[in-house]
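Postdoc handover notes: sequence design on the structure in folder B. Input tokens:
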């Protein structure tokens, strides 16, 4: 169907069929290559909606006051060494981790997906990782922590080094010119998206999130607590973005969704959980601040199951309850979960991953 515009002496003809054809070629991977960033018409409306949601949550580290945190940090009697150590571990781990996530988006995921609205949301995601990395810089400088010490933690705290190694090894082989018509490579990308979204941001971030928010709940480090609350709100959107990306990728490439592949992903989550539990024991070597490492380990099992469930995989501990209901309140898990259930139902109508039924979630 042609539409004609006659303006002055000129006639412009727009062929709608050609445009529809281009739209139909929008895909997560192996879609139409275009240099014109054709956002419209949107095929993945959820990605655009998430982009807008992320943008509406914009925050800047400098807007968060750090005076109270600095007073507490300097005052020897106000805080125990264990509490200071949690902050050191938080700053040390996340300084590396936020950068790793952003780098993987820019050099792997955003490079390999083809639909412009997915690239739009991923660009915002990468930018938020920059804000998170910057917030750590701001915490370090506000408290007067030696940046060399922070850097040294990446290499010299074995549990941090192992967590970082676990994710970066899945990123480095996927850079540029990956032939995504090959099933093996599609699986590699799906694995990368699962690993970063569900295992790392979705699970391995939550040990420290919980500890730092517990401290904030006792009025310790209110500024850092506020920044972690903002970060956590952003992370919920990142997890959702990667969860949807994963599910649509599988939906469009159902040949990768084999029993073996599912088992491989569950095994990856198991490994992520083991690494996180070892890390938690380094963050909380003594249970002196009202926080117990055992409870945090149970919390990680609970979170990991939610992530597995969210992408249609079998959980590891059926029926496990959240040991920290107050944390669910603080981090607004409930709201996130409702949003997430809504999306799943909506998405399932057109999904081949229909085996995840509502009552399983
Ligand atoms: Fe982040
Ligand atoms: Mn993130």
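Designed sequence:
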């Amino acid at each position: 169907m042609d539409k004609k515009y006659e303006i002055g002496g000129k006639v412009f003809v727009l062929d709608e069929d050609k445009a529809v054809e281009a739209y139909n070629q929008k895909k997560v991977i192996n879609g139409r290559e275009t240099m014109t960033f054709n956002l419209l018409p949107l095929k993945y409306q959820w990605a655009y909606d998430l982009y807008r949601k992320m943008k509406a949550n914009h925050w800047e580290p400098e807007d968060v006051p750090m005076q109270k945190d600095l007073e507490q940090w300097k005052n020897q009697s106000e805080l125990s060494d264990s509490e200071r150590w949690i902050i050191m571990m938080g700053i040390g781990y996340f300084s590396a981790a936020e950068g790793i996530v952003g780098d993987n988006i820019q050099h792997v995921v955003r490079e390999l997906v083809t639909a412009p609205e997915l690239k739009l949301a991923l660009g915002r995601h990468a930018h938020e990782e920059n804000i998170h990395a910057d917030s750590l810089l701001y915490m370090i400088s506000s408290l007067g922590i030696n940046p060399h010490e922070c850097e040294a933690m990446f290499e010299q705290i074995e549990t941090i080094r192992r967590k970082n190694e676990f994710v970066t090894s899945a990123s480095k082989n996927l850079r540029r010119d990956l032939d995504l018509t090959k099933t093996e490579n599609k699986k590699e990308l799906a694995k990368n998206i699962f690993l970063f979204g569900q295992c790392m941001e979705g699970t391995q971030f939550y040990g420290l999130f919980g500890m730092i928010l517990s401290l904030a709940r006792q009025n310790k480090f209110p500024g850092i607590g506020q920044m972690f609350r903002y970060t956590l709100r952003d992370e919920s959107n990142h997890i959702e973005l990667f969860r949807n990306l994963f599910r649509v990728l599988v939906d469009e490439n159902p040949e990768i969704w084999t029993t073996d592949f599912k088992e491989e992903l569950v095994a990856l989550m198991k490994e992520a959980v083991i690494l996180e539990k070892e890390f938690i024991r380094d963050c909380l070597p003594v249970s002196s601040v009202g926080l117990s490492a055992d409870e945090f380990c149970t919390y990680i099992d609970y979170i990991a199951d939610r992530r597995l469930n969210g992408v249609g995989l079998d959980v590891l501990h059926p029926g496990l309850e959240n040991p920290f209901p107050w944390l669910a309140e603080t981090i607004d898990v409930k709201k996130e979960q409702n949003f997430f259930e809504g999306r799943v139902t909506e998405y399932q109508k057109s999904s081949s991953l229909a085996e995840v039924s509502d009552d399983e979630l």
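Context for whoever picks this up: The domain at 44-360 is CATH 1.10.620.20 (Ribonucleotide Reductase, subunit A). Don't rerun without checking with the PI first.
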